[in-house]
Specification:
It is a single chain. By secondary structure, this protein is mostly beta strands. Among the domains are: 70-140, no CATH class; 177-268, no CATH class. It is built from three helices and 16 strands. The strands form five sheets. It has a four-stranded mixed β-sheet with strand order 5-6-7-8, with no helix packed on it. A hairpin with a 6-residue loop joins strand 7 and strand 8 (137-140). The N and C termini lie far apart (89 Å). 15% of the residues are buried.
């Protein structure tokens, strides 16, 4: 049964049963209400003035994947369905791997550009950007920049790695150690510090700063400071070492002195 163009009736025309069957009954049977038979059915056009019933919904009211011509063989493998330009493609993926993907996780293994790989042991997500046989390339999508190595931090030139808290102090511009102390009755006391283990009292106005992590050589620099108003001078003595630095504290009269509150020193160099 097909749709017929409705007739145009004229005054006085005798309407026959055949006319009614063709232009009324048969055309009504080609409309959507007559086509659908089950809850969840939809009607799609199959051509000019032609409709067809499609069982679009499952028993749980989920749209069937093949409706509308976007058919994908979801039984072909595990992965995701990509919809593009009216067509569907299954992208094989591995969502429960225990290691990172290898170069052999390629097109021969069913993977393609766009495939996803989740390493549940390493807590990383990878995306396939090249599925060439034996030379697959997977990019780590877990972080935008890799962490800088110690060598990269010390070089201080890379623009493609990130400085992490555990290695930030390795950059040439970073202070490697600092300490603020008070010294009364010949006993130096650390107020606050970084990378300083202890202070050793040698004599009046004479103490040694001991580093937690030593410098690579004794060729580093020191900058002095003081919280009190007035004048203070720090001198580094000749017996400077990679793991410690001996300092002399001078007052405004250029005499060795203790008791200058908030005296500080900062150290820069390579570790």
């Amino acid at each position: 049964m097909v749709w017929s163009a409705p007739a145009t009736w004229t005054v006085g025309q005798v309407v026959t049963a055949a006319n009614l069957n063709t232009h009324l009954r048969d055309n009504l049977l080609e409309t959507a209400p007559a086509k659908v038979t089950t809850d969840g059915d939809i009607v799609v056009a199959t051509g000019a003035n032609a409709l067809e019933r499609v069982a679009a919904m499952t028993a749980t009211n989920l749209m069937k994947h093949e409706v509308g011509g976007l058919e994908a063989d979801v039984n072909a493998g595990d992965g995701f369905v990509e919809i593009k330009a009216g067509a569907t493609t299954v992208r094989k993926s591995n969502l429960a791997a225990s290691a990172a993907p290898a170069v052999t996780d390629d097109s021969n293994a069913g993977y393609s550009v766009g495939s996803i790989w989740i390493d549940t042991t390493g807590d990383k997500v990878y995306g396939c950007v090249d599925a060439s046989v034996g030379a697959a390339v997977w990019k780590d999508l877990s972080a935008s920049l890799p962490a800088a190595t110690q060598a990269e931090m010390e070089a201080g030139s890379s623009l493609t790695v990130a400085a992490t808290p555990g290695r930030a102090q390795l950059h040439p511009s970073a202070c490697k150690a600092w300490v603020v102390w008070a010294q009364t009755s010949g006993t130096p006391t650390i107020n606050t510090s970084y990378n300083v283990t202890s202070l050793t009292d040698n004599a009046v106005g004479d103490l040694t700063v001991n580093f937690t992590t030593a410098f690579s050589t004794a060729n580093y620099t020191m900058a002095p400071g003081c919280a009190e108003m007035g004048f203070v001078r720090l001198q580094t003595l000749a017996n400077r070492a990679a793991g410690s630095c001996r300092l002399r504290v001078l007052n405004s009269s250029f005499a060795a002195a203790d008791g200058i509150e908030g005296t500080s020193a900062e150290f820069f160099g390579d570790q």
